[in-house]
Amino acid sequence: MEVFDLSNLDAEHTSRILTSWDELDWAYGSNTSYGLPSGSISLWSGAPGIGKTRLLVELMKRFDQMNPPQTSMIFQGEISPARFKGEKMGDYIPCGNIWVSGDVAIDEQIAAIDHYKPRLVITDSVQQIEEYRGGRGAKEIVRKIRDVIERTDTHVIFISQLTREGKSKGGTDLPHEVDVECIIESGQKVSDSLFVLTVGKNRFGCKGREVVFAHHDWGVRCESNNRFEDDDFLESIGVPRYEAPVVKPRGRIQTWLFGPGRDSFQDSF
């Protein structure tokens, strides 16, 4: 048994991993800090074919394009690593390390994370992990993953499908065990190319923030600027808030227009 007296403990705060997508960092954040919480686990669920893998490939590229490049690793058992590079990465030439593995046993994945210590890990999909067993093994998987990523300061994203009821496939254990749960939905009422990531449960930040993405021939781009309507975010980056009209297309997707100063943020989109 372990019991701690808080008066004898030094407080620790969760560190963050910036993605270079400012809007995604804001969506994951609290009112004082932004980015993916290190040593933590996310669950991203969406309908088949909506673009989950494509979005995460773009995220790995953005990690790789940082200065210095940030490492990432993806576990996927659908195609070989060589075909993954050809089919998913296109002509992209990594600046640093983007690791791909077909390992589907949780102990093998943990060994790879512990050895290479990537900043970002993607499991596409969580249903392919041998021990998952339709969701019955979710608690064991999360416990084992958490033990290693708290040492390596890694953020893990599990990919899953949505049921017809809009719930993550595989029962309630996995959404309960992870730290952040995100739902990816189509924005086809506005445009077939648009889709929306909504942050639901969030142990380290705010709930309900949305990010709008769009598919392009070359990849995925962030299309929303909701963070500029957040006074706490603007204060954190030292930017005054500009009053501007708001354009609200049909549905839940909102695009914010801004006055002077907006151009300085274009590289984040």
Average pLDDT, rounded to a whole number, is: 87
In total, the number of strands is: 13
Structural class label: alpha/beta
Provide the helix percentage: 10-25%
Q: What gross morphology would you assign?
A: globular
Q: Can you list the strand order of the major beta sheet?
A: 5-4-6-7-3-8-9-10-11
Tell me the number of helical segments per DSSP (H or I, 4 or more residues long).
7
Indicate the proportion of strand residues: 15-25%
CA distance, first residue to last residue: 49 Å
The low-pLDDT segments are 244-269
Predict the CATH topology.
Rossmann fold
Please give the domain count.
Answer: 1
**CATH uppermost class:** Alpha Beta
Major sheet characteristics: 9 strands, mixed
Q: What's the Cα radius of gyration?
A: 19 Å
SSE string, helices as H and strands as E: EHEEHEHEHEHEHEEEEHEE
Give the second-level CATH assignment, the architecture. Answer: 3-Layer(aba) Sandwich
For CATH, the homologous superfamily is named as P-loop containing nucleotide triphosphate hydrolases
